[in-house]
Amino acid sequence: MLELTDTTFTRHLADADRPVLVYFWATWCPPCRMLAPVLAELATELADVAEIVKVDLDAEVDTARSQRIMAAPTLNLYRGGELVHSMVGARPKHALLRELEPHLSVLTW
């Protein structure tokens, strides 16, 4: 997963040719550690329809502040640089897919 920074966040989302799921995480967050392998797996499975990237909340405080991230983990889905869906907390893979499905209409599972 690509790691975005305060410098690259806005430009990356604006330039994306498909939806981008941003994983806001922190090293001190146990649910983040549980969610990381699930997202790594989904990054491969969904590569044709979405991109999954991550932002370290402790290192990229300006981005966390500008996106109003209040908890870790937070997953924000952006299309054309605009927030279209947000999820807070860890979830199993099937629950993530179910929640993302309406926003990624080309998914067929």
TrEMBL record:
GO BP term, pick one: cell redox homeostasis
Family matches, as InterPro entries: Thioredoxin (IPR005746), Thioredoxin-like_sf (IPR036249), Thioredoxin_CS (IPR017937), Thioredoxin_domain (IPR013766)
CDD domains cross-referenced by the UniProt entry: TRX_family (cd02947)
GO CC terms: cytosol
Gene3D superfamilies, alphabetized: Glutaredoxin
Record-level Gene Ontology MF annotations: protein-disulfide reductase activity
The Thioredoxin domain, residue ranges: 1-105
UniProt keyword list: Disulfide bond, Electron transport, Redox-active center, Transport
Cysteines engaged in disulfide bonds, as pairs: C29-C32
PANTHER family attached to this UniProt entry: GEO12009P1
Family (UniProt): Belongs to the thioredoxin family.
Full protein name: Thioredoxin
Organism of derivation: Kibdelosporangium phytohabitans
